[in-house]
């Protein structure tokens, strides 16, 4: 029985990790966001402004909200172990993020190491975000619509071509040279072609994003299909499986780890292409807003758009991670997540 315990793989949180989360270290980790928010708020209120004499409003309110939320979570950690475990694990990261925000405030507004107009402080950025909240919300919606349209079109095309190339030797013979010729070319190089083929700016932008997603999706899906163990297929054939069953019930499920790699790489490529796609005549979107404000030297609003892009793209990537974790839950005992 003892050998079985020693040989069994550790759970998601090992005994050593759980031990390190107890005692003073766990308390300090849980208090890290509150301590960081208090230090950032004190530095902002006590140090004089050198970059701009304008009074600050949104930034101290944000820090006060972080401080109140952090203290509230710290109090909740004594009520339920879920809060205690989450806060002790994520607390240092949250504290480091708040300290990074404080460093931005120090090198811009407080010490003016980075001068205006190219390096506004966080308060000016938050002010610009609040002033243009309506147009930023509309731009984020338009960018999301363009991104998802192109992404899902590229995923669908990549799945079809990847399965065909990975399964059929004939298709692989003719398809791989085309992939090697067309695939490595950046999707942004096809901007003139997209504008010539599609008169509608939204369609041309979606086509560019789909092209950026299609190549990694095809290559990784075909690799996953081609590397399905022959033993899986032989067992299914012995049990009387049809060709359709072998493709859809054996090969594709076995290739799902590679398919998800293609989804992640395609999503990253779609983010890069989205900004360029919104310059081919689209009159809305975060990329369009960024370029518009840059033309008016409104760098506070440029940084506001960049922050929204970061949150926007990070949320989509986190959502895809959650889907991956749900679909590939059977892998948790075999690979390191």
Explain what this protein looks like in three dimensions.
- The protein is an all-alpha fold and 337 residues long.
- The protein folds into two domains: 15-115, no CATH class; 133-331, MetI-like fold (Orthogonal Bundle), CATH 1.10.3720.10.
- It is 77% helix and 0% strand.
- It is built from 15 helices and no strands.
- The chain has helices spanning 2-7, 15-20, 24-46, 58-76, 81-110, 122-131, 133-167, 169-182, 191-197, 201-226, 230-238, 243-254, 256-277, 286-295, 299-327.
- α7 runs parallel beside α10 (201-226), α9 crosses α10 (201-226) and α14 packs antiparallel against α15.
- The longest helix is centred in the middle third of the chain and has 35 residues, at 133-167.
- The protein is flat.
- The model is unreliable at 1-21 (pLDDT under 50).
Summarize the structure.
This protein is an all-alpha fold and 337 residues long. 77% of the residues lie in helices and 0% in strands.
């Amino acid at each position: 029985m003892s050998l079985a315990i020693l040989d069994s793989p550790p759970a998601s949180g090992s005994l050593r990790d759980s031990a390190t989360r107890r005692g003073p270290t766990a308390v300090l980790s849980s208090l890290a966001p509150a301590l960081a928010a208090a230090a950032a708020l004190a530095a902002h209120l006590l140090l004089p402004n050198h970059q701009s004499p304008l009074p600050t409003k949104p930034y101290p309110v944000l820090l006060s909200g972080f401080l109140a939320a952090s203290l509230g979570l710290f109090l909740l950690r004594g009520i339920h172990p879920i809060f205690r475990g989450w806060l002790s694990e994520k607390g240092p990261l949250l504290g480091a993020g708040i300290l990074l925000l404080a460093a931005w405030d120090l090198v811009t507004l407080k010490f003016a190491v980075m001068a205006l107009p190219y390096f506004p402080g966080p308060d000016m950025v938050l002010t610009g975000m609040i002033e243009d909240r309506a147009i930023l919300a509309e731009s984020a919606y338009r960018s999301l619509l363009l991104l998802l349209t192109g992404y899902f079109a590229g995923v669908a095309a990549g799945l079809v071509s990847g399965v065909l190339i990975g399964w059929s030797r004939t298709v692989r013979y003719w398809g791989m040279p085309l992939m090697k010729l067309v695939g490595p070319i950046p999707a942004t190089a096809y901007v003139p072609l997209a504008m010539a083929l599609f008169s509608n700016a939204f369609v041309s932008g979606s086509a560019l994003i789909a092209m950026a997603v299609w190549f990694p999706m095809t290559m990784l899906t075909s690799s996953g299909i081609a590397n399905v163990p022959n033993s899986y297929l032989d067992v299914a054939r012995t049990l009387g499986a049809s060709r359709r069953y072998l493709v859809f019930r054996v090969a594709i499920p076995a290739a799902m780890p590679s398919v998800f790699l293609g989804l992640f790489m395609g999503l990253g490529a779609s983010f890069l292409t989205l900004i360029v796609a919104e310059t081919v005549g689209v009159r809305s979107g975060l990329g369009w807003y960024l370029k518009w404000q840059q033309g008016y030297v409104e760098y506070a609003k440029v940084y506001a758009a960049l922050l929204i892009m970061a949150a926007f793209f990070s949320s989509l990537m986190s959502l895809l991670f959650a889907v991956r974790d749900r679909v590939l839950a059977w892998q948790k005992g075999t690979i390191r997540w």
